[in-house]
Amino acid sequence: MSPEMPTSAFELLPEGTHRVLVTGGAGFIGGAVARRLLTGSSATIFNLDKLGYASDLTGIEFTLAELGAAALARHQLLRMDLTDAEATAAAVAAASSGCAAALTGRS
Ligand SMILES: NC(=O)c1ccc[n+]([C@@H]2O[C@H](COP(=O)([O-])OP(=O)(O)OC[C@H]3O[C@@H](n4cnc5c(N)ncnc54)[C@H](O)[C@@H]3O)[C@@H](O)[C@H]2O)c1
Q1: Fewer Cβ atoms within 10 A, N terminus or C terminus of the chain?
Q2: For residue 11, what are the CA distances in angstroms to 55, 58, 64?
């Protein structure tokens, strides 16, 4: 790995990031990103997911339980279909006030 490459995903987050919007955060990749952000940062995660057949929130719920009650508010699940432009715009507007990063894991 070159010296310029970040060694942690958190180095990619702008300094002072408090809110991160993750799409497909109930899926395999998005869920891993959400859990990593919950354990490795203090950011609140806005998880936009329609909760389809491949979705599983068990890992996130387990992580939240491990972190304790104070962490519960750091995971905001917004159940919605991203193909619905109007609903997506409203959810992004609600979630992205002060949001400095958006990560996507939807299929
Ligand atoms: N898993 C891998 O190894 C891998 C490797 C390379 C690329 N990818 C790509 O990364 C993306 C995510 O992969 P994954 O394995 O996490 O998939 P996944 O199926 O486990 O998770 C996808 C999540 O996105 C949600 N989603 C899908 N369409 C949606 C929509 N219209 N609105 C709201 N939510 C929606 C689903 O409900 C699900 O929770 C995919 O595009 C996949 O092709 C995955």
Answers
A1: N
A2: 28, 27, 23
Q: Find out whether 43 and 13 touch, Cβ atoms under 8 Å.
A: yes
Pick the residue whose CA is nearest to atom 34 on ligand 1.
49
Q: Is 49 in the pocket of ligand 1 (CB under 6 A)?
A: yes
Residue spans per domain, the chain = 16-104
Is the CB of 25 inside a 6 Å radius of any atom of ligand 1?
A: no
The finding on whether 82 has its CB within 6 A of some atom of ligand 1 is: yes
Tell me the pLDDT tens digit for each residue of 49-99.
999 999 999 999 999 999 999 999 999 999 999 999 998 888 888 777 765
16-104 homologous superfamily = NAD(P)-binding Rossmann-like Domain (3.40.50.720)
